[in-house]
Amino acid sequence: MSAVNSLYSLTPMTGRTSGADRTTVIGTVEMKWRTFWIAVFAMVPGGILTALFYPMLDAWSFLWIAITEALAFYVIERRSKEGLRLRTYQTFFDKKKSNINEFYLCGQRIDVNGEEFGTLRQITAPVVREDTAREPASTPFEDFEDSLK
């Protein structure tokens, strides 16, 4: 008898963040849910600034909504062009929390004093084939180690 109502986990194949790029229709606009919530929460400070400046600037005060929306998307959605491609607010928090001899990378503390430094070197030996008649150009690895002592 075969298994009925089997359930398979797709997370190992698709990844944890596979749903981050999915879009949905909200109202009449197709967008990601993250984009929608950023726009909604950025309207609050934009509306407050618009209400404060409306008596002075009249219709020009509505520019505060566009300015706060653009600033919110810049801080939350923008990623750096190089390195780990962190979001702007993550980079800001990492820089702010960093002290002397320690820094933060992706929110995790890295202590410079706790690290041990060493020397990297090549640990391979040259390949000697029996079918070639000529001598190898370099000495075997063991002879090289002995010459360092």
Provide key terms for this protein.
two-stranded antiparallel sheet, mainly alpha, 149 residues, 9% strand, 41% helix, single chain, two-stranded antiparallel ribbon
Mean pLDDT: 78
Q: What letter string, H or E per element, gives the SSE order?
A: HEEHHHEEH
Q: Proportion of β residues?
A: 5-15%
Please give the count of helices.
5
Biggest sheet strand line-up? 1-2
The secondary structure category is mainly alpha
In total, the number of strands is 4
N→C terminal distance: 70 Å
General shape: elongated
Radius of gyration, CA atoms, in whole angstroms: 29 Å
Q: Sketch the major β-sheet.
A: 2 strands, antiparallel
Question: Which residues sit in consecutive blocks of at least 5 with pLDDT less than 50?
Answer: none
List the helices and strands and how they pair.
Elements: H1 11-14, E1 24-26, E2 29-31, H2 33-57, H3 63-76, H4 88-97, E3 102-105, E4 108-111, H5 141-148
Antiparallel strand pairs: 1-2, 3-4
Summarize the structure in short.
This protein is 41% helix and 9% strand.
What does this structure look like?
The protein is mainly alpha-helical and 149 residues long. Helix content is 41%, strand content 9%. The chain has helices at residues 11-14, 33-57, 63-76, 88-97, 141-148; strands spanning 24-26, 29-31, 102-105, 108-111. It has a two-stranded antiparallel sheet. It has a two-stranded antiparallel sheet with strand order 3-4.
